[in-house]
Design a protein that fits this description.
- The complex is a heterodimer of chains A (about 200) and B (about 270).
- Chain A has about 200 residues and is an all-alpha fold.
- Chain A has helices at about 10-20, 20-40, 45-65, 75-95, 105-115, 125-140, 145-155, 160-170, 175-195.
- In chain A, helix 2 crosses helix 3 (about 45-65) and helix 3 (about 45-65) crosses helix 4 (about 75-95).
- Chain A is globular.
- Chain A starts with 9 loop residues before the first helix and ends with a helix.
- Chain B is an all-alpha fold and about 270 residues long.
- Chain B has three domains: about 1-85, no CATH class; about 90-125; about 125-260, Alpha Horseshoe (Serine Threonine Protein Phosphatase 5, Tetratricopeptide repeat).
- Chain B has helices spanning about 1-20, 25-35, 40-50, 55-85, 95-100, 105-125, 130-135, 155-165, 165-180, 185-195, 200-215, 220-235, 235-245, 250-260.
- In chain B, helix 7 packs antiparallel against helix 12 (about 220-235).
- The radius of gyration of chain B is 37 Å and the shape is elongated.
- Chain B starts with a helix and ends in a 6-residue tail after the last helix.
- The chains are: A mainly alpha (about 200), B mainly alpha (about 270).
- The interface of A and B includes residues 20, 125, 142 and 181 of A.
Chain lengths: ~200, ~270
C-alpha cells in the first residue's frame, strides 16, 4: 500500500492528498511552514498566529483538492496556492478591526469563517447552517470516545479497509462494520445534541 | 427581519427532522460511501440517483456526507498538530535571514540573470536623452562639512549622508529643514540634486525650480544645469535645452552640443 510519491509531481501529489497519505501530507506540511511563519512574523504576528493561519490554510487547500477545485498549472502550483491562501487569511486578520483589541487568533479565525466563504463572498443562511453543523460535528468527533475515534479515523481518514481494521482489532469483519455504524450514530447524536 | 426569523425556523425544523430520522441505516451509510468512492454498479448508481430526487432523502445524504467530512477534517487537524512538532527547530529568529534561507542557489542565479538582462536591455534601449543623462550626470560634489554653528548641524549632517551616496537619508533630513525654511535656496538646491542623484527627476524638478526663483543665488548656474538634467532624464528635451542655455556653464554647453548634434556615445 506504501507508494513512494514524488512531491514535485503535482498530479501524484494531488492523488496522495486525496488519499490522505500521511507521509505526503506531512512532507507538504513541514516543507512549506517556514515561508508562512516568516510572512506572519514580519507582519505583526506571532509564531502561534503563524501556526493557526497555516493550519487553517492547509485544511482549506486539502478540501479544495478533495473537491477537485484546484487544478495545478506548474510544478510548484500547490505549494504556491497554499502560500497564497495562508497569506490572504493573514491579511484578512490584519485588516479586521478587532485584531488590535484581541490577540486571540482562534476568535479571529472564527469571526472570519463565519462571515466569509472561500471566495470571500458572504455566506447565505443555507451555507451558514451547513457550516455550523460541520463545526458541531467536528467538535463532537474531537470529544468522541477513543475506541470510536480510532475506528472512524482508520476507516474514513486513513482509508483502511474493514478487513485491515478487523485484523488489527482481532475481531470479525462484520463486527467492525456494525461498530463503525454505531460510532457514526453516536457521533451524529452528539453533534445534534450540542447547543452552540 | 422576517426573513431571519423564518430561517431560524427552517434550521430548527431541519435539526428536529434529523433527530427524529430513523432513516440513517447501516445500508444507507454504506450506499453513500460506495456512491462517493465510485464502487457502485451502474444499476445501483442509477437507482441511487433516482432516490436523490427526493428532497428529504437528498438532505439526509448531504448530512451524512457532512459527517464524513467532519471526521476527516478533524482527524487531519489533529494530525497537523503532530506534524507541527516535527518541523525542525533549527531556524534562526532573525527576520533578515529568514527570507534568504528560502532562496535556493538556482533561484538566486535566475534572479541575477534577470537583473543582468534587464540592465543590458535598459542600457541599450533607453531613449537617447536617458543615455545622455547617464553619460553626463555627476551629482554635485556638495559643500565642505565644517561644523560652524549648531543651527546648521542638521544640514551638514545630511550633507555627510549625501556625500556618502545615501541620498534617501539626506533627503529626509533636508526635508525637515525645508519645512521650516521653504525659501532657503541652499536647501532647495541640494534637495533637488539629491532627488536627481536618487534617480527621482520628477521630485527634483520642483525644488530646482524653487532655487532659480532666487536669481541672486550662488547656485543659480548649477541649478539651471541640474534642472536641465532633470528634464533630460524625463525626456523633456525642449525644456532641458532651455535650462542649459540659461545656465551657460561649461557642462551645460557640452550637453547642448551633444543634444543638438544628436550624438550619443553608443553609436
Amino acid at each position: 500500500m506504501e507508494h513512494v510519491y514524488n512531491i514535485d509531481s503535482q498530479l501524484q501529489l494531488l492523488d496522495a492528498i486525496k488519499a490522505n497519505n500521511s507521509v505526503v501530507l506531512k512532507q507538504l506540511y513541514t516543507a512549506n511552514y517556514y515561508k508562512i511563519e516568516a510572512l506572519v512574523l514580519k507582519n505583526n504576528g506571532s509564531k502561534e498566529h503563524a501556526k493557526d493561519v497555516y493550519q487553517d490554510a492547509f485544511i482549506a487547500v486539502w478540501k479544495n483538492v478533495k473537491n477537485d477545485q484546484f487544478i495545478p498549472e506548474n510544478e510548484t502550483a500547490l505549494q504556491g496556492y497554499l502560500y497564497q491562501i495562508a497569506k490572504n487569511k493573514w491579511m484578512d486578520i490584519l485588516r479586521s478591526p478587532s485584531f488590535k483589541k484581541t490577540k486571540t487568533i482562534q476568535h479571529e479565525l472564527n469571526v472570519l469563517d463565519k462571515n466569509i466563504d472561500q471566495n470571500g463572498h458572504e455566506k447565505n443562511e443555507e451555507q451558514e447552517f451547513y457550516r455550523k453543523r460541520l463545526e458541531q460535528t467536528m467538535e463532537a468527533f474531537k470529544n468522541l470516545g477513543a475506541p470510536c475515534k480510532e475506528l472512524l479515523t482508520a476507516f474514513y481518514f486513513d482509508k483502511a479497509s474493514l478487513r485491515d481494521i478487523a485484523d488489527k482489532l482481532k475481531i470479525e469483519e462484520n463486527s467492525v462494520r456494525t461498530k463503525k455504524y454505531r460510532c457514526m450514530e453516536k457521533l451524529r447524536q452528539l453533534a445534534l445534541a450540542s447547543k452552540k | 427581519m422576517y426573513g431571519k426569523t423564518s430561517s431560524v425556523g427552517i434550521s430548527l425544523e431541519k435539526i428536529r427532522k434529523l433527530k427524529n430520522n430513523s432513516n440513517f441505516t447501516p445500508e444507507l451509510l454504506e450506499a453513500v460511501e460506495r456512491y462517493d468512492n465510485g464502487s457502485m454498479t451502474p444499476e445501483e448508481r442509477i437507482s441511487f440517483e433516482n432516490q436523490l430526487k427526493d428532497i428529504d432523502f437528498k438532505a439526509l445524504v448531504e448530512d451524512i456526507r457532512m459527517t464524513l467530512l467532519s471526521i476527516e477534517t478533524q482527524a487531519l487537524k489533529e494530525r497537523l498538530d503532530e506534524f507541527h512538532k516535527d518541523i525542525p527547530e533549527n531556524r534562526p529568529v532573525e527576520k533578515s535571514t529568514t527570507k534568504v534561507r528560502f532562496l535556493s542557489f538556482s533561484k538566486i542565479a535566475i534572479a541575477a540573470g534577470i537583473i543582468i538582462a534587464l540592465g543590458i536591455f535598459w542600457m541599450f534601449s533607453g531613449s537617447s536623452n536617458e543615455k545622455l543623462f547617464n553619460q553626463h550626470f555627476r551629482p554635485d560634489p556638495g559643500l565642505p562639512t565644517t561644523m560652524s554653528s549648531s543651527d546648521s548641524f542638521v544640514f551638514y549632517d545630511a550633507m555627510v549622508n549625501y556625500k556618502q551616496g545615501d541620498y534617501k537619508t539626506a533627503i529626509s533630513k533636508w526635508q525637515k529643514l525645508a519645512v521650516k525654511t521653504p525659501e532657503n535656496d541652499t536647501i532647495n538646491y541640494f534637495l533637488g540634486v539629491a532627488y536627481l542623484a536618487d534617480k527621482n527627476a520628477d521630485k527634483a524638478i520642483p525644488f530646482l525650480n524653487k532655487t532659480i526663483y532666487n536669481t541672486e543665488s550662488v547656485f543659480l548656474e548649477d541649478a539651471h544645469y541640474y534642472l536641465g538634467m532633470a528634464y533630460l532624464k524625463s525626456d523633456r528635451k525642449e525644456e532641458a535645452i532651455r535650462e542649459f542655455k540659461k545656465s551657460g556653464s561649461e557642462k551645460s554647453n557640452d550637453l547642448l552640443k551633444d543634444l543638438q548634434d544628436g550624438v550619443s556615445s553608443y553609436k
